[in-house]
Each structure stands twice: as structure tokens, then as C-alpha cells.
Amino acid sequence: MSYQVLALKYRPQTFDDVIGQDHVTTTLKNAVSSDRVAHAILFTGPRGTGKTTIARILAKAMNCKNGPSAFPCNACRICKDIIEGHCTDVFEIDGASNNSVDQVRDLRENVTYMPSSAKYKIYIIDEVHMLSTAAFNALLKTLEEPPGHVMFIFATTEVHKIPSTILSRCQRHDLIRIPVKLIAEHLKLLCTKEGFQIREESIDLIAREADGSIRDGLSLLDRILSSSQTHEIDPQWVLNALGVIDHQVMHDIGTAIIEKNGAGLIEIIEQVNDSGIDLKKFYADIILYFRNFNVIRLCGRQSPAVNLAEPEKERLFQRAVPAAQIQAILEILLEEENLVRYSSHTRIAVEMVLLKLLQMDSGAGIDHIIHQLDALAKQVGSLEPDSGYSSAPVPQPESGPPSSLREKEKPLPVEKSPVISREPVPDQNYSQGASSISEKTTWQDF
Ligand SMILES: [Zn+2]
Known about the structure:
The protein has helices at 6-9, 22-33, 51-63, 77-84, 101-111, 133-144, 164-167, 180-194, 200-210, 214-227, 235-242, 247-258, 262-274, 279-299, 310-318, 323-335, 337-342, 346-358, 366-387, 400-409, 418-422, 424-430, 436-445; strands at 40-44, 90-94, 121-126, 150-156, 171-174, 197-198, 232-233.
């Protein structure tokens, strides 16, 4: 059991090791150096972005034998104890399971005692938003007048659930979702340190799947490295391990939809299904594919809003498909998303929705429709002299189908007296050829 997961093995031990949160770590380093650290600090941000990691580094910075120092030594006994998680003066409390008022009251009593070996008693409360209202109220008293030897560090993913009375007594630091590029660089470095060879595209893929969370990225990389039999990681292995669909498959499905190739579409869905990939995820990936396509069409290939590797961006950019068509496809995909999500026959639902896309009129943009209407209006205008009603808006008594339509419409207003309404209709049908005068009067009445 000597194996240690990457997230633990390479956990940042100094502020400078933290990835992608420079705005927070720089502020904290300055605060520690100038001895202006607040007694209550709140870290908020998405999961896996380094909240508790920074909290521990701050605890070391405050309690290091050589400190308070922005650069804790990581060698003294207190630093080591904090790293190993058994420092008697640094308490890591899980807010979710210690959320009652009694537990906070115990904490309040504890706070009054001096630290046993370090300079500060530091309480790190993770997921602090899980505390009950009564627990928050009990905590408030201590936050208002904290003893000089006490520090609170709170971490939360849901800052809106924390009462404003607590928030106003904390120094708040917002951690951000870590950019893909930084995650990829970090993962690549770790692969090299671990002696693994992995292709750039695989690293990019893992970094994208991590979705801004360095912890998720490390955990995915862990899974791939620990399950690989060689130190050279096969890109296909990465795809399988992550359950991610190959770019080429996404490109093929996009082509089949755009070119309205129903047979090709069914074959690709078959392949994806056989490979064991969840079809609901596959559907979500198709939405993402067209979303990226749309953004690249509108904003260009350099758009930072598209989270794709450069060759993929280029490939989408080179495809000549009107933005209106892509948007129409996206619209249907989103409209039908629930059908796929909640269907117990996912495969059939995916097939049905994708085949529906093929029936879509590729030029069905609003501009196109307006253009067609304009053309139609011109055609109607050119017929007007024949009608004898050049200024009237509906002067087409000669044409057969419209008159029959009007006759169908006619019974509607006289539905209340069906006996009367039935009579004129057969009459008009009977003498259709010579009914232009009666139709004119009908239209005027109408
Ligand atoms: Zn130290």
C-alpha cells in the first residue's frame, strides 16, 4: 500500500505551488508578510480549485516556527504536523457533519484556551454553508470578538447560503475555475515526474474533462496512469478510460447531420453504442460540438470561449456551413434534450432526434423566410393588373384553390346556424366556374 494518489503526493505545500489562483495567493502572501492577516477568512469557489489546500498553507504560514512567514519552511515540527493532518492547534472540521449548534458551542468553549504548541489556534471549517442557522448564530458571537490567538478559515462552494452577518465579518477570497491550459501544463509536468510518456492531445483531453478542477484532473490522470500497463500511454486508452468520444467520431457525426446522411448517422450511433459509451453523454457531446461550431462561426477560430485544441478549432473553422443552419440544429438538439435524457430507450431517442435534424430545411433562417415572402409579394404584385383590383389586398377571385379555401373558411362564422350555412357552400361549388361575381361580393362582405 505504498502507492499514493497524485493529488496527495503533489499537493501544493507553498503559496507558489498553487495552480491558477495567483490573485488569492499573492494577497495572502502580502498579508502574512505585513502581519495583516484577518482573523476570519473565507475561501469560496468551485470544487477542486484549492480552497482547503490554500487554507492549510495559510495555517502553516501563520504557525511555522520561522513565522509567521509567507514561505513556511515545511520542515519544522508544526509544518510537518499540519501537512500530516495531526497538528494539535489546527482543527479541520467538516461543516456537513459538524453542523449542529452544540458542536459550535463546544468549539466556542475550546477557542478560549491558548494553543498548545503553535502561535495560533486555527479552525478550518470546510463546507461551512452546511452549518445550521443556530450554529451560525453561535459562531457569530466568537467571530465578533475573537481571542487574539484564534483564526477561522472557512471554505465553501455555495457562498450564497452563508448569512450576511457571517460574511461581513470575514475577509473573502474568490477562487476561480482553473483554465484548461494551466491544468494541462500541470498534468504534463506530473507525467514527466512519474516517468510516463503521454501525448499532448491526451493531456488536453484530460484537462478539458477536469472542467476547471485541478483535483478532478489529477484523479482522472491517476486512473489512467495506474491502469496502464506500460509507461507509454496510448491515446485510445485515454479515450476509453475517460469514456470520451474521439474527435473524429464527433466530426463524422457532424458531417452526417450537415450532409443529411441518415444511413451514416445510424451507423455511427451503432459504433458508439457498441463501444460502451453512454449515449446520453454522446448526445451532450453533440450539443457541445455544434455549440463550439456556432461560436467559431460567429467569433472566429481564436475565440477563448471555445475549449478545444487548435487543430480541432481549425477543422471547424474550415467547414463552410451557414451560422443559421448550425443554430437551427442546436435549437432542435436543445428542444429534444429531455426526450433523450428521460427516455428508457436512449438509443432510439438519440436516433430519432438526429434523424429529425435531417428533415430540417437547411435554409430555414428567418432571413431566408423573409426573402421568400418578399419574392412571393412581388409575384402577387405582377398578377394584380389581371385581377381588376389593383389596390385591393386580396383581389384574386379567378384562382381556383384560394376560392375553395375561402369557401371552406366561410362556414366558420355561421356555425351557429348550420342549416343555413350548408346551403350556399354546395351552390358555390356547383357553379364554381361562374362564381366570380358572387365571390367578389363574398370578399367584400368578409
Ligand atoms: Zn515550518
